[in-house]
Amino acid sequence: MTSHRRNLVVLLIFLTTSPLLTSHFFARAASASPPVTRPRIIYINDLDDPDDPGEEDGDDPPIVKATVRTTLQEKKDICHYDSCSEDQESCPKLAAETGCLCPGISGSDVAPNAPRIDVLLPVTEGEHKGKVQIKWCAPSSVVSGYRVVIEGREGESQEFGASSRKGFVRSLEAGTKVCVEALNKAGSSSPSQFSCQRYSREKSDHKLLAGIIGGGVALLIIVIIAAVILWKYKLCQKAKGDSADGLGNPSYSTEGTL
Question: How many CB atoms within 10 Å of residue 210?
């Protein structure tokens, strides 16, 4: 009995250790087992925007926005425009023609800013003799004309064109208030300390007197300079005459005393 068990153990060891039988056994087992199915892996390169509805809703594919290139505007010059000069092109017109830059100007749909009075000056000669000349400077606004209003003569206001910078009114009494208003289709400017001024003949007379004195002083200096030049010229002529007389006198000789 013991020998039979021993023989059975030896047989089992032989069967398990034999390479031929082992390979045949595993081949049969592999052929009998069902095929193994591997899961398919899908690689996603771009992730969709969670807010984007996607193509499932029938929307068009996203549009790639092109990069907008901006260039710096070339530096422009300031317009050669003097707001106090008369009969010149308006600054917007100069800008349209030459491409220059104008200061900030309010539009024609806004009432203009007040102009600035430059001077009130009495006229002493010419066709406007006895009148007062008013000069002003334009505001930074679109202006279609100007109106001069004199205190106590509101019904006699005078209007001037958009390119005008001066006007003449009949003689004024000292202390009379004069205002210049700018006009356009939106209305007129409001009076200000710059657009209104009281006429003072004394100041005007002082300016005139200062001009006369200055001219007189300049004339006097010219006369003095001319007199000095003439005096020096006469001295030179006299010196030349004395030298000629000395050489012609027989009392003088190079041989000594007679």
Answer: 10
